[in-house]
Specification:
- The complex is a heterodimer.
- Chain A is about 35% helix and about 25% strand.
- Chain A is an alpha/beta fold.
- Chain A has one domain: P-loop containing nucleotide triphosphate hydrolases (Rossmann fold, 3-Layer(aba) Sandwich), CATH 3.40.50.300.
- Chain A has a six-stranded mixed β-sheet, with helices on both faces.
- In chain A, a hairpin with a 2-residue loop joins strand 5 and strand 6.
- In chain A, helix 2 crosses helix 3.
- The N and C termini of chain B lie close together (about 10 Å).
- Chain B has one domain: 3-Layer(aba) Sandwich (Rossmann fold), CATH 3.40.50.300.
- Chain B is α/β, with parallel strands linked by helices.
- Chain B is globular.
- Classes of the chains: A alpha/beta, B alpha/beta.
Amino acid sequence: MILVIGGFASGKRTYVKEVLGYTDEDMTDQAIDERRVVYNAQNMAMGDPEAIDKTIEELCRKDVVIACEIGLGIIPLDKNERMLREAAGRMTNRLAKRADKVIRMVCGIPLVLKG
Amino acid sequence: MMVLITGGSGSGKSTFAEGVMMRFAKPYYYVATMLPYGEEAHRRIERHRRIRAGKGFSTIERGTDLTGVEFPYGKGAVILECVGTLLANEMFEEDGAGKDAEEAVISGIMHLKDEASDLVIVTNEVGSDGYAYGEETTEYMKILGRINIRLAKMADAAIEVSGSQPIFLKGAIR
């Protein structure tokens, strides 16, 4: 599995299409179905630990997982928002450990963090 | 050596920073700046304690004025976690330095650097969510950005952690 991370609109999906050769039809939005690429995976990080473990197992069987980095701002006053960004970060770390390759997009430029 | 480690929430920077500490000689000191207010802070502190458990850290809890920190078991490797919280305490807590917060943070860290054989500093990236905040928060973001730049200049190595992966911005860890 290749994990692609980066901020909002940093070029993650464009990279997956232009460089890795996938199309929009291959991509699904924060869901597990037959498609090989999942984006917005950061939104799949909340829930009970067992469900998250299962989601991570399923994501690791995909070709490509795309997750927004959402922890790089002021820590929100709202508790749920705080929990979400923390959970999203932790899930991304677990995916990164399992991934064959980790790419971080900055200004449309891919930085290879792993692999 | 002095190592600066930055990253966002949940990036894995604490775990990475504590791994870096293991390269240095004991004794290990953990300077914790988070004040134990409320259940969430307690959980967070618990989590960091769990990560450190069995690694031989002495924890020193200090929310403001790090120039007063003393190390009871002699010179050793020190980890400071984290600059973002320290600055918030200095700016907004009653016993903080208020308008002199930036210099208070820097001089506190300089004191740790003088007293430590090695220093690992964990800071925070807060400038990339694109929101416009009120005056106080904007000031906080500006000062934290300046402090991070000053610390990175002084550091032998500066690393951003993202998705638990280190990105070397400056230098290397020996």
